[in-house]
Amino acid sequence: MTGTTRITVLGATGFIGSAVLKALARQEVQLRAVARKPAEVPPGPAEVEVVTADLTDRDALADAVKGSDAVVYLLLGDGGWRAAEEGSAERVNVGVMQDLLDVLGRYDGVRPVVVYGGAASQVGVPQREPLDGSEQDKPETAYDRQKLRAEQLLEQATAAGRVRGISLRLPTVFGESTPGGGHDRGVVSAMVGRALDGQPLTMWHDGTVRRDLVHVDDIASAFAAALAHPDRLAGRHWLLGAGRGDALGDVFRLIADITSAHTGAPPVEVASVQAPSHAPVTDFRSVTIDSSAFRAITGWSPEIPLGEGIHRTVEALARQRAALR
C-alpha cells in the first residue's frame, strides 16, 4: 500500500505496535497511530497523525478508524495473556474487534483491510511439528480462546464482504523496545533481565523444549508485507515463524554468554527447577512453525539471526537500566 493510503495502527505504543509503526513510517503513506498514550512519531516519509483514545469507547473507536483504507489491530488487555480471565481483558481482546467490524461495516461499498495480530498458541497443545496453519484449533487458555474468537469474527466479516481480514498468528516474539513503545514481556527479555542481575536462568523442563523465536523487527516487516498483498491473504489465518525451533536450554545459555560478554561477569547458571502447579501444559510442548504459505505470497522471511537479536536485547536492556540509575 503506497501513495495516499491511510493506515491506522491500533495499539501503536505497544511492544509490537510501535515496531509496526516504525516499519510503516518508512513508506509514503498516511499513518494514524492510535493508543491510550501519545505515540512517538518515528522517522520516515510517512505522514503520521497521533491519536490518543480509549478504544473500548465505541464512539472513540469509530473516530479513530474513520477514513482508513487499512487497520492494523494490535490491542492487548492490561496484564497481557496472564490477565485474560478478567472481564476487562475480554472486552479489549474480543469486544473491540466486534465494535471495529460493526463500525467499518457502515462504509458502504468500501472493504477496508484489517490485519490482526493473532497467536500461534491459539491452536492449543501442538499435536505435531511443524505447525503450518492447517491444524484444528483447541485453545487451552482464556487468552487463546479470546484471540481465536476475535479471529473468527474477522473471518466472518470477511466472508460477508464487509472487510478484507488477515490474521497473522505470531510465534514467540522478542527483542528490544522501540522508542516510545512498550517493553517485551516474553521469556527472552525476562531471562536477559535475570542475567543482567546475576541471577540463574531457570527452566521448568530439561531444556530440550523448543520455541520458534522471531525478532520484533522481523514481525513488523511481516505486517508491512501483509498490507502489500491484501487480496491474496484475506479470509484466513497465516502462521509466522523462523522455522528453526530453538531449544530453550541452548537459548538460555546463549543469553548467559552474551550477557557475560557485555558485563564482564562470568556467565550465570542455567538450571532446571520444579515447575509450579499452575504451569500450563503448553509450556512443556515444543513449537516449530512452517510459514512457507505466507512467505510464498509475500516474499517475507526473518532476517535477524537469533544471536544478533539477543545481543541487541541485552544492550538495550542494559542501557535502560543505566539510564535509571
Indicate the overall shape: globular
Count of DSSP E strands? 13
Helix-strand category: alpha/beta
| Distance, first to last CA | 43 Å
Mean pLDDT score:
93
User: What's the total helix number?
Assistant: 10
- Side by side, the strands of the main sheet go 3-2-1-4-5-6-11
What gyration radius follows from the Cα positions, in whole Å?
Answer: 19 Å
Q: What is the string of helix and strand elements?
A: EHEEHEHEHEEHEEEHHEEHEHH
**Low-confidence runs (pLDDT<50, min 5 residues)?**
none
How can the largest sheet be summarized?
7 strands, parallel
Helical content stands at 25-40%
Strand content: 15-25%
Tell me what you see in this structure.
Helix content is 38%, strand content 17%. The protein has 325 residues and is an alpha/beta fold. The relative contact order is 0.14. The strands form four sheets. A seven-stranded parallel beta sheet has the order 3-2-1-4-5-6-11, with helices on both faces. Strands 7-10 form a two-stranded parallel ribbon. A two-stranded parallel ribbon has the order 8-13. Helix 2 crosses helix 3 (87-104), helix 3 packs parallel to helix 4 and helix 8 (248-263) crosses helix 10.
